[in-house]
Design a protein that fits this description.
The protein has helices spanning about 25-35, 40-60, 70-85, 90-105, 115-125, 140-145, 160-165, 170-180, 195-205, 220-225, 235-245; strands at about 10, 20, 110-115, 130-135, 155-160, 185-190, 205-210, 230. The chain is α/β, with parallel strands linked by helices and about 250 residues long. The strands form two sheets. It has a six-stranded parallel β-sheet with strand order 5-4-1-6-7-8, with helices on both faces. The chain has a two-stranded antiparallel sheet with strand order 2-3. It is elongated, with a radius of gyration of 19 Å.
Length: about 250
């Protein structure tokens, strides 16, 4: 009989795994623009943000830290480029909006805890599991988690800004294991990104679970991830751990 696998550490992604924005980015940007006398469609800003974010991430990965940027400067540039792509060419008019948006997205009130997150974290604690965060977020994450009552659940919070490498770089996962004093074989990671979370953790020998939500899975992902590693919601994690460890459900 094969020895029972026992998971001792669960690491967590944050955005769209434990938290999400209360309102879409385009709406947040449009609301703040109106407060500064600029009328820009939320839909246009949402589309422009996706373009600006992707371009900035490609040109300056991980907040451009290796190129001398700060995460704050990185985000201000994303906002400026978003409005530019949405048709607002006056950078001077956008600058105070960018400053305010940076502060707003630092505020816990801009975020909401996903359904089942707190109950699942508490259930993990009852099992004696060590919990930690591995996130491609910036330095604002700690205060956001404190404000939403989640920080107390984690032994540590490791952001890509602090680590110097973003997921799926294996070094950020290895750094987390080092901080937790754990080996990959007794650790599992939970996240919503197939590439950054699921594949990133698997690549270094950790177990991983992919939080998918109720939407249909991409065929590539569906064919690549075993069904027992897929979480339609956070409430599915504890039963998935039971199956992984070969325990009767609910014990």
């Amino acid at each position: 009989m094969a020895p029972r696998l026992q998971i001792r550490l669960i690491t967590w992604d944050v955005k769209n795994t434990l938290l999400r924005l209360r309102h879409p980015v385009g709406e947040e940007y449009a609301t703040k623009a109106r407060a500064h006398g600029l009328a820009v469609e939320a839909t246009a800003l949402g589309q422009a943000f996706r373009q600006a974010y992707q371009a900035q991430s490609h040109s300056f990965p991980n907040y451009g830290l290796s190129r001398g940027l700060t995460s704050r400067r990185w985000w201000l540039d994303v906002v400026l480029q978003t409005f530019y792509l949405a048709g607002v060419r006056d950078a001077q008019a956008v600058a105070p909006i960018a400053d305010q948006l940076y502060e707003d997205f630092s505020n816990p009130c801009t975020w909401q805890v996903l359904e089942g997150a707190k109950a699942t974290l508490m259930g993990c604690h009852r099992r004696g599991l060590k919990l930690a965060v591995i996130s491609n977020f910036d330095r604002r994450l700690e205060d956001i988690l404190v404000g939403l009552g989640l920080r107390e659940h984690f032994d540590f919070v490791l952001t890509s800004e602090a680590a110097g490498w973003p997921k799926p770089d294996p070094r950020i996962f290895h750094k987390a294991l080092q901080l937790a004093h754990m080996e990959p074989a007794v650790a599992a990671h939970v996240g919503d990104s197939y590439c950054c979370d699921y594949q990133g953790a698997q690549a270094i020998g950790m177990r991983s679970f992919l939080l998918t939500g109720p939407e249909p899975l991409d065929p590539v992902v569906k064919n690549s991830v075993p069904e027992e590693h897929i979480l339609p919601s956070l409430s599915h994690l504890l039963p998935a751990l039971d199956r992984l460890e070969g325990l009767p459900p609910g014990l």
